[in-house]
Amino acid sequence: MNLFDRRIALLLTQLAFAVLLVNELVQLSSANDKLSAMIAQQGNNDAVVARINTQLDGLARGTQQLAQHGNPQAAKIVAQLAQNGVRIDAKANGR
Hints:
With 95 residues, this protein is an all-alpha fold. It has helices at residues 3-68, 72-83. The mean pLDDT is 90.
């Protein structure tokens, strides 16, 4: 191989390496965008879950109050919840 052929081979190797790096950079950028979107979606889901938990806590406390005032259906529900390991905190005032 002469000097000119070696330079071309080196240049082609450097070009291939540069293309590889650019490709990796594009893929990392795409993955970062997807991850950011997932994190944002998870934040939205967390807010929905918190709202649903607050609503369920209110329903459970209301059902417990009905049971304490003699409602037999509410008493059955409270008993079933207790049997399933659900503890109702009557003193909590909606988180």
